[in-house]
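fwd from M.: "can u put these together and see what the complex looks like"

so here's what she sent:
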Amino acid sequence: KAGVTQTPRYLIKTRGQQVTLSCSPISGHRSVSWYQQTPGQGLQFLFEYFSETQRNKGNFPGRFSGRQFSNSRSEMNVSTLELGDSALYLCASSFQGIGNTIYFGEGSWLTVV
Amino acid sequence: DAKTTQPNSMESNEEEPVHLPCNHSTISGTDYIHWYRQLPSQGPEYVIHGLTSNVNNRMASLAIAEDRKSSTLILHRATLRDAAVYYCILRDDTDKLIFGTGTRLQVFP
């Protein structure tokens, strides 16, 4: 079956712009979470959605937001981009529940210039 | 958030066993121990998880200390494709994973 799909894979934005990243979870998965990975900070949790509701949020400024649609697809948005937002953004999905495996997509590489 | 401590790096030769340690002294009774690995330019990949008992799957084995304050991921025969960063994570009943710095495993032919 298809894995977690993230689009776009690569993008370049200018400081001050905004960006929207998309994630299609594995079919049947209702939980979607987002992570940011940078060389300096490593992998950091952004937020988690289940059935269109945000269940957890990491320590990121309000410029980072997300949402989940009724078909479980999710988007995250970063407004007023800063150079430090350059990172690999990873989406993950699961059936939800501690016994279920979390599957990651290949990520979206964002470069802010 | 419960934290884990892992060595920054480890080395192994191909076809030799590898034991990757993890300390998690602040683990709570309901936290599961999960291991993920990340190959270059890829998203993290699930390896194995357990609660109290040792676990085996086709990729690896997980040995959990009796007091659950530490665990060891065992790769029985390392291959070059096992070269990756391995993360030991304590997971609660949500999908929020708190990644540490992980262990970078190098495998030599």
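replying to her w this: Chain A touches chain B through 27 residues (CB under 8 Å).
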